[in-house]
User: Fold these one by one.
Assistant:
Number 1:
Amino acid sequence: MTQQLNNQLFAFTKQFTDSAFKAQSLALKGLETVAELQLKTLEQQAKVSAEFVTEALETRDANGLRSLWEKGTSLTRENAERSVAVSQEILAITQKTAESLNALVQEQRQAANEAANEAVSAPIAAAKKAAK
């Protein structure tokens, strides 16, 4: 009886640690993807902003300032659009990660139910067998 309990406990612990490892892997993969996306966006915005500052420093007359004003407005709009697009991608990645974690939880719950049913039915079957 003790051996059976130990085996069940070991199996449950192994299943729990496997699931925890999978959940951690999924979460880290999602975080890595989000961080990579944000870094690429930051790099692109820094490059565009540096080009704008360089152009601003080279401006010498009123016409140059006027075109610089228009370019600055355009740059601001493009950066805002890029930020919105990146936010939407991050939301999609987060949602996909959450769905994967939910599937993992459902899998764990089903396995736990099966193990519980087996744990309850095994002693009953053994008792019936012993009674015969």
Number 2:
Amino acid sequence: MQDEELLRYSRHILLNDIGIEGQERIGASHALIIGAGGLGSPSAMYLAAAGVGHITVLDDDTVDLTNLQRQIAHRTDTVGIAKVQSLSQTLHALNPHVKVTALKLRADETSLAQLVAKADVVLDCCDNFTTRQAVNKACVLNRKPLVSGAAIQFDGQVSVYDARQDAAPCYACTFSPDATFEEVRCSTMGVFAPLVGIIGSIQAAEALKLLSGAGEPLTGRLLMLDGRRMEWTEIRMPRNPACPVCSR
């Protein structure tokens, strides 16, 4: 680690749970972020600022004026360009030491199979149930830890699903892929701007803990936030022995 990096990451290095060894692990790691919007913005920015060596961001959307209320990685002058390109510019400005791979494409089974296998941690920052299930399945197949977040209106949730642990649940253990429900989106339901920042920041924190070995991850626990009351609820989640994804 060079002198400039020692200074840049000094506040992490001072933490006994991280230190130089933990910071070096962060610097040698590769994070895959699915989604460059409300959750992906703060997640990616904190990971870049913290010195994650390689960040791959996957999103097929472009920056829209309505995004700027909450998607803090994007700016007025990036409206109309790919979100991954806009986010990449922001991350490079934050930390030029970080390698950013920006992929303007939609997450599907083929792309996820290749990308998840190369990552050390995966952050699900997407906005739809189908993609969440596909990301979870790829993480289970490749035994990669998944940090999943969601936010709509004033409600948010976040958890860690670590497929490296045999006793840990996967996303499908709690949210069955066979469930039928009406998909809700912020474009029709709305979302409280700071809510995505809170959830996305926690996703970054959990990813950094997994990469550095610091603390105790949220594995097997689902945190739910009621943003109106600013009240947290925690639910313990057991592994489902009949899960169609991780029990096979």
Number 3:
Amino acid sequence: MYFLILGIILLLLKYLEIGPVAAWSWLTVLAPFGLAALWWAWADWSGYTKRKAMEQEDLKKQRRLQKSKEALGQSARRRR
């Protein structure tokens, strides 16, 4: 995501001819888009994306269970 944001900023600076970016080659300006594509390809290939999605689902599940226990009044009592 950071590569994509950087690419958009550099693209706007190049297009509007602002600052030193105006003198850079188009290849340099568009490089962050290629890096973003490589990152996404690696993240999908390695399972990073799926692992992060599963972590988010587990966190939601734990919050939902904790909220249900609090609603039932079971969170303060410990099992012996």
